[in-house]
Amino acid sequence: MLYFDNAATTKPSETAFSRARAFALEQFYNPSALYNEGYALQSELKKARSALLSKVADESAFELVFTSCGTESDNQAIFGFAKRGNAVTTAGEHSAVSAPFAELKNRGVIEPRIAPLQKDGRVDVSALLALVDEKTSFVSVMHVNNEVGAINDINAIAKAVKAKNPRVIFHSDGVQAYGKIPVRLSKDVDLYSISAHKIGGLKGVGALIKRKSLVLPPYLIGGGQESGRRSGTENVFGIMQFAYAAEEKFSTLKADFERLTTLRERLWEGLDKSVYTRISAMDGTPYILSVSAVGLRGEVLLHMANDKGLIVGTGSACSSNAKSRYSKIVLACGYDEKTADGTLRLSFSPTTTLEEVQKAVTILNEIGQDLTRRMK
């Protein structure tokens, strides 16, 4: 089976899994326990916390709170700090951000303001800044778009936002960026969400990186874990596997970036241009290539590809139950419904090979040409 849906989830790293195995079967104790075995696990969690945080931020200025996933991290950031006036986000956000914004509007807590996207999927920064005023309490801008792969310069955007209103809390969903593109969080970024299963970790583990100066309201309360910021017994096995997977990813980040950029372009070059139109920009993440078979159904092509042994996506897996059949992200980029309806997302991992790319091209061209003939 050819797997090109790594933006949805990645195969867990076997090496990281093996290294963490002892924390599931031998060191299985509750890290909050007072006996020596439990207490020792707090030291291991501290090491994992430091390892994950130091990859993208200065440990003297930031700290990391473990969560169950990227969605929880986004939710904790938004419900914790978007509490008054207006809050600004973009039309390109994952539903883990857009849905909480809608919920806060329904509760009458904030006035949500949505900045438009440019054709390449990046936020229109000028339009976003025009929405920020003295009543803005919170701004959230995705780092790497999960459907089209566009990269927002969050450090520059955060700096510009703080220049207009220094009191704004700036958050970024970094789930598709962490471990995949070079980044070092600046002093203007307050909150940053990451997730394990996007980089070879396990599902059920994520984290929210926060500035130490911020008082983070707990989203889950009860046992007082994570220094009272996130209750619930820590998933030690998952956390350790996350840290080991991140160690692998960051050790080859630059080489993977360059190699996957080449593979992404080889895939695009091989596709039949009479069937497929490119949506992803060339300067986006090398981990995502979105194309559209304009006038065809992306979902139909997905199933045809699956029947031939190729797994691809049509957009965010978390939006597969959405009422609309059209990708809201692609529509927000300015494309029409026919283009949005025909969208396929191909997403890569460091283990993706040239041979797999070539096979994927063959299958995509076959099914695209086949469905085009049927539609005539």
Tell me about this structure:
- This protein has 376 residues and is α/β, with parallel strands linked by helices.
- It has 13 helices and twelve strands.
- The chain has helices spanning 14-20, 22-25, 36-54, 70-81, 95-106, 125-131, 154-164, 236-251, 253-270, 298-307, 328-332, 337-341, 354-375; strands spanning 2-3, 62-67, 86-90, 111-115, 136-140, 169-173, 191-195, 206-211, 277-278, 288-292, 310-311, 343-347.
- A seven-stranded mixed beta sheet has the order 2-8-7-6-5-3-4, sandwiched between helices. Strands 9-10-12 form a three-stranded antiparallel beta sheet. It has a two-stranded parallel ribbon with strand order 1-11.
- Helix 7 links the parallel strand 5 and strand 6 (169-173).
- Helix 1 packs across helix 8 and helix 4 packs parallel to helix 5.
- The two termini are 30 Å apart.
- The mean pLDDT is 95.
Secondary structure layout plus pairing:
Elements: E1 2-3, H1 14-20, H2 22-25, H3 36-54, E2 62-67, H4 70-81, E3 86-90, H5 95-106, E4 111-115, H6 125-131, E5 136-140, H7 154-164, E6 169-173, E7 191-195, E8 206-211, H8 236-251, H9 253-270, E9 277-278, E10 288-292, H10 298-307, E11 310-311, H11 328-332, H12 337-341, E12 343-347, H13 354-375
Parallel strand pairs: 1-11, 3-4, 3-5, 5-6, 6-7
Antiparallel strand pairs: 2-8, 7-8, 9-10, 10-12
Could you give a short description of this structure?
The chain is an alpha/beta fold and 376 residues long. The chain is built from 13 helices and twelve strands.
